[in-house]
Fold this sequence. Notes:
The complex is a heterotrimer of chains A (about 625), B (about 170) and C (about 100).
Chain A lengths: L6 H16 L5 H28 L5 E11 L2 E9 L1 H24 L6 H20 L3 H19 L6 H32 L4 H9 L6 H17 L8 H4 L5 H10 L2 H10 L1 H5 L2 H23 L4 H21 L3 H28 L17 H15 L5 H16 L1 H26 L7 H6 L5 H16 L14 H16 L6 H28 L13 H7 L4 H47 L7 H20 L1
Antiparallel strand pairs in A: 1-2
Chain B lengths: L1 H22 L3 H21 L3 H25 L12 H24 L16 H10 L2 H22 L5
Chain C lengths: L8 H21 L3 H26 L3 H31 L13
Helix pairs in contact in C: 1-2, 2-3
Amino acid sequence: MIKLVWLVPLLPLIGFMIIGFFGKKLSKGLVGTIASGAVLGAFAVSLGIFFELGGQTEKSVTIDLFSWITAGKLSIPFSFLVDPLSSLFLLIITGIGFLIHLYSIGYMHDDEGFSRFFAYLNLFVFFMLLLVLGSNYLIMFVGWEGVGLCSYLLIGFWFKNTAYNNAAKKAFIMNRIGDLGFLLGIILIFVTFGSISYNEVFEQAKHFIGDNSVITAIALLLFIGAMGKSAQLPLYTWLPDAMAGPTPVSALIHAATMVTAGIYMVSRSNILYTLSPFAMEVVAVVGVCTALFAATIGLAQNDIKKVLAYSTVSQLGYMFLALGVGAYTGAVFHVMTHAFFKALLFLGAGSVIHAMSGEQDIRKMGGLKKYIPITHLTFLLGTLAIVGFPGFSGFFSKDEILAHAWEHNKLLWFLGVLGAAMTTFYMFRLYFLTFKGSFRGTHDQEHHLHESPKSMTIPLIVLAVLSVVGGLIGIPEVLGGHHYLEAYLKPVFEDSSLRLVHHLSHETEYILMGVAISVMALAMYFAYNKYVKNKTLPANEGETLNPIHNLVYKKYLIDELYENVIMKPINFIGEALHKVVDNQIVDGIVNGFGSMVTGVSGVIRKAQSGNIGFYVFVMVISIVLILFTQLF
Amino acid sequence: MITQYVFYFLSFLAIMFGLMVVLSKNPIHSVLYLVLTFFAIAGHYVLLNAQFLAAVHIIVYAGAIMVLFLFVIMLLNLNKETEPHKNVWLKLSAAVASGLLLVVLVGSLKNAEMIAATNTFDPNVGLIENLGKTLFKEFLLPFEVASLLLLGAMVGAVLLGKKSIK
Amino acid sequence: MSAIQIIPINWYILLSAVLFTIGVLGVLFRRNAIIIFMSVELMLNAVNLLLVAFSTYLSDSAGQVFVFFIMAVAAAEVAVGLAILMSVYRNTKSTDIYMLNKLKG
């Protein structure tokens, strides 16, 4: 099966090509079948690879496909690296990706861009698989850029709306900033190690002696790339705006692909980070700050998708916190569980929006429990998973991260728990406002309320089951379980874990767990008290809020800050350069040359009399002159 | 000694007939003077032990090319002195220009360093045997290409010579 | 006994130069395209003569082979050139090159 790994990205690519070229001629059912089938096929192969890899002793297999770039001493093969990390990501991407495809068949059914949508989705999955499978940084970079392109295409899918287009551009440009860092990192890796293939780089890095400031620089540059792609402070603002795309796209970007790319890249390069404590410190601090910051914004949002978007940013912050404190397995574990419940929540939100005929404001919802029971139940399970309710998948992964954070630095742990409490609060706020209470929408909307079709609810159910049981592969030792995931991923993080010693007594772990659970319960109680018992509603537009609430509601005015501090000056400079340098100087020079040629040729043209005799005469004279100057 | 005199005589003939080609008013006379010039040049070839080349020269130039010229002139009925006169200044400038060219060419000779004949003199160079060997060994490809050139010229001439190309 | 052993090569160069210049003079001097054509032939022959002279001087037959090629090219040139002249004459009823000034810029 491992030998067939090239099939995994190839199938979605073929799907993309068929749908992209012939999509208009095919029926909707066929398009949906091809697209979903391609990803399902990739999932089947990935599953085979996962189990084959688990069963064999050779944990890292490189499949050479062809020689890609050869120039001087630079030789980059196009090859795939199959190891526990990439095979796990393959499963997440193709598995969640397939469910989202399935869901989209129902969700996008009435959209005129149906086939275009599926072509983009397949392309998205293809690039993400390329990113994960590549055996060197360049292939990863290709996937990385491709994912950025597809996110642009999908966020701006409804391109007739200017605001959506702006959101797409924002995502693209924010990502570019990060990509520059990533590219510089790759170049620095090549300069330092003379290779960009993972195996060679990590092998050399292991024995790297001397000044590790180069490693720190590499790690930080790569992290800038991860910041852009995984929406960390300060490059996170594109992710909430990315809600402009269709809801399945949000699910795909937030859960299975795109944002996890940064986590994947850092955990892939774990040895480089382990060698540079400073870079790890930066990663951890940025992560925890993002987690807290986004969580506070999430507290005050009224758009169902915006809340989920900020929760994604926040959860990504947790993953980087995990990476920063050396809990690589924890980060990957959280990527996986987060993929389950965040996909579930987004698809659930999509189902709610579908039922509400496009309404996204939770102030206009309420009491949906009895109208859309399946969505309600699965959404509740997803919420419990994300807040870390004991036994659900989020609990185990979050607990692992927090335990490592405690070990590393008590303050990081405290902030992490605070963020978790806020997560609990806003998630239950969202849940209560949406499903409990009485309906607050218009009469028309109430009349239309209906459960979504099967193709939408089945993915919800599957994801709900995964969200509940997904954590079981990572039950920590302290609870008497086997951390299967840790064992599976061990070969990838072996070199790092040798350098990072973990020791935490069981008692401490129990206490930490207890604290986390009680904080979560407390936050849940507050949310219940406020939104169910007292039936408080978020303030309507235009109502005066207290200054802090207002600031949070306006997302700390970060967008405005960026606009004023970065965009306006750049626009001003651009305008000035355009008016003065371009229009006056550059155009002046270019036009000057043009008019000079016109003028001179107008004069010289007269010499072209058409008289051959004269031409010959001039020729002879010229020959004489040339001979004269050359010979004497 | 006789060789030397023959050389002077032939050179004199060549230059004189050459001038007559340019200066005579009647095109037919020009052609005939050119034929004589070619004969003088052929004489030079003989002096230079290039007998075969001299024969070919007579056959191709005097025999074929010049006949073609004569044929065209007669066909176009140009044998009268129909040529309108050029402006005197133009004639003068033409003479001055060509005179300058001659001066420059001759002047350049003065500074030129003569390469000495390296190998010993071989009187057989101009014989058919030697020429044939060189032609078909070293210059086989150009020889074949030349045949293509002639073919192309022939086709072109036939096409151009047709009354009207539709 | 060859002439080249008695007569210095410079004389041949001089003779060729003179013949060549006469050709140039013809081109500049005359208006009749046919005469100009013949002047061009004269120039070609001046070069031929020089090639033969040097070929004999250096005892290298390559020079004489080149003369063959020049003859072939000249024959082709004359055939095509005269054909062109014919069609020019057919159109303008003249072989005066001063009539052919349509290439005015």
